[in-house]
Automatic annotation (TrEMBL):
This is Acyl-CoA synthetase (AMP-forming)/AMP-acid ligase II. Residues 43-426 form the AMP-dependent synthetase/ligase domain. It comes from the Bacteria. GO terms for biological process: Actinobacterium-type cell wall biogenesis; fatty acid biosynthetic process. GO terms for cellular component: plasma membrane.
Length: 597
């Protein structure tokens, strides 16, 4: 099997840990630009360029050393240090300071009034029991009040923007095999699960990311993704640090308020620009960028638009090209990929310089577990975008019950093995972590399949996919399949149909799932959707629900029992903007959604 790293030249030098990389760049190119944060304060005009604050490599190293020295006098190596800082340079300093001190960083966020955030944050802090909470002077009182209100053990609160300068850190340098940080997954607010990431894991993942996206000296990474999210942390912080690239960051809210800012930062980048975002962000940007925003915008400087973290919709990719082709966007700029927090970030990626590769499969056969090609315009076809080939790791598609590897063309659970696969779940019984992170893969004859060199086993991703001609196509989540009348349906197929069933339904704001019926009724399908901006106050909800039922029945042969129509921005989402399907199902069962049709 060909690995992406075999196709792309290595960029820069490899380091065992992120603190090692920072020390190297500070010593060898200390006066050069390292990182910039562009702030768009509330109230600024829509076309404001924002306020940029930058650090050189030497300045960044100095601030990180100061935080590490302060932390090292108040906590022991291996203690947890929660990072409760808003998106800023202070977040980068706090995270790296914890690592340099030998602590286990816990990237989260400052207390937020947004629904569910406080509950989730208190659950994370209770789970990891930090000895220190790193924040800023502006949020110190708010953080202290939050800790007291939720009756959490009182860790020391550190304002990283006012710690005194220090010359050295007393703690020994972290070892590659030691624990670097806990990455709490974004899928559930009720039961947070902390993925244990070693220094070797994050170094491997950061190196993979630089190689895949062909980072070079002079390249600039541009990111609006939150730094407490796995993709944001690796793309915006770890990969630039590992490769010696400059990084330009902005706040996610600034992106959501005016997504053209993201493009403008790439256009102004001093070197080739690299960015990565979830698939929905490209459709959102195309829809929310005005003609005035396009005036003078040039994207010829962009080397890579990375696209991943969720199944990739061809229509979203096409809408982005169509909208920005006149600004220099080209199909070969896009890089599709697949990854997850348990593998730090990337598992597969498409080759550089090639337009997205799509294949259309018979929808019913695909749901039954077999990828059968049909014509691209086939009425019963499901068009998928390739997520590419493995990135410095081994990938197999596996029968989820027998644990046997499946041949090309058959749908199964995606398993991977590589140096980026994490240690397990924090606080979980070792048998639980072993079942997910160190599973035993069997070949067709029942013999164990050797994992990646140096790895103890295989990671079970919980995602479904199929391999065809060397490419991986992600088809959905194992737990999210809608099973009705003995047939499988992928929720994203249903959601696409619902989006186009009525103009009152908002695009990319639909979730479909199944719930258990009473007695022997089996499972039935439910659709929850947000209203579009075209929906009026006197909208006939029954008319919309009837249109949804008719479209889904006609396209998929599936009866939708219930349709719930919400206001805009009422669907629960992850930190990267994906709809929380499991939480939607839980809220529906609990009866906390209104708007039934």
């Amino acid at each position: 099997m060909t690995l992406i790293s075999d196709l792309s030249p290595q960029a820069g030098q490899e380091f065992a840990t992120l603190p090692d990389a920072l020390a190297h760049w500070a010593a060898t190119c200390g006066g050069q630009h390292a990182i910039t944060f562009v702030d768009y304060p509330v109230g600024h005009a829509g076309d404001s360029p924002g306020v940029a604050t930058s650090l050189t490599w030497r300045e960044l190293d100095t601030r990180v050393t100061a935080v590490a020295a302060w932390c090292g006098r108040r906590a022991r190596p291996g203690d947890r240090a929660a990072v409760l800082v808003d998106q800023s340079l202070d977040y980068v300093v706090a995270f790296l300071g914890a690592l340099r001190a030998g602590l286990v960083a816990v990237p989260v966020y400052e207390p937020s009034p947004l629904p569910g955030f406080r509950t989730r944050l208190s659950g994370v802090l209770a789970d990891c029991a930090p000895a220190l909470v790193l924040t800023t002077r502006r949020h110190a009182d708010l953080v202290s009040e939050f800790l007291e209100h939720h009756a959490l053990d009182r860790p020391a609160v550190v304002a990283v923007d006012v710690v005194p300068v220090a010359d050295a850190v007393n703690a020994p340098p972290p070892r590659p095999e030691s624990l670097a940080y806990l990455q709490y997954t974004s899928g559930s607010t009720r039961n947070p699960a902390g993925v244990m990431v070693s220094h070797a894991n994050v170094a491997a993942a950061a190196t993979q990311t630089v190689r895949v996206y062909q980072g070079r000296p002079g390249s600039t990474v541009v990111s609006w993704l939150p730094l407490y999210h796995d993709m944001g942390l690796i793309v915006g912080l770890a990969a630039p640090l590992m490769g010696g690239l400059s990084s330009t960051l902005m706040d996610p809210v600034a992106f959501l308020t005016r997504p053209a800012r993201w493009l403008e930062l790439m256009a102004r980048a001093p070197g080739p620009a690299i960015t990565v975002a979830p698939n929905f962000a490209y459709g959102y940007t195309a829809a929310r960028t005005t003609d005035a925003d396009l005036s003078g915008l040039r994207l010829d400087n962009v080397a890579t638009f990375g696209d991943g973290s969720e199944p990739i919709a061809p229509s979203i990719v096409d809408s982005f090209y169509e909208r920005f082709a006149g600004c220099g966007a080209r199909p070969g700029m896009f890089r599709q990929g697949y990854g997850l927090a348990e593998a730090v970030l990337l598992v597969t990626s498409s080759p550089a310089g090639q337009p997205p590769k799509t294949r259309t499969f018979d929808r019913a056969r695909l749901a039954a577990g077999e990828a059968v090609d049909v014509a691209p315009d086939a009425p019963a076809g499901s068009t998928l975008v390739s997520a590419g080939q493995p990135v410095d790791q081994l990938v197999r598609v596996v029968h989820p019950e027998t644990h046997r590897a499946l041949p090309d063309g058959q749908v199964g659970e995606i398993w991977t093995s590589g140096p980026n696969v994490c240690l397990g779940y924090w606080g979980a019984d070792d048998a639980v972590s072993a079942a997910v992170f160190r599973a035993t893969l069997l070949d067709a004859h029942g013999a164990a399949v050797t994992p990646y060199p140096g790895c103890a086993g295989w990671l079970r991703t919980g995602d479904l996919g199929v391999r065809r001609d060397g490419d991986l196509f992600v088809t959905g989540r194992l737990k999210d399949l809608i099973i009705a009348d003995g047939r499988n349906h992928y929720p994203q197929d249903i959601e696409f149909t619902v989006e186009h069933a009525h103009r009152a339904i908002r695009r990319h704001a639909v979730v479909a799932f199944s719930v258990a019926g009473s007695g022997d009724q089996g499972e039935y399908a439910v659709v929850v959707a947000e209203r579009s901006r075209h929906a009026t106050d006197d909208l006939d909800v029954t008319e919309v629900a009837d249109a949804v039922r008719a479209a889904v029945s006609g396209e998929h042969g599936l009866a939708v029992r219930d349709v719930v129509l919400l206001g805009q921005n009422e669907l629960p989402r992850t930190s990267s903007g994906k709809v929380r399907r499991a939480e939607c199902r839980a809220r529906y069962v609990a009866g906390t959604f209104g708007g039934r049709g």
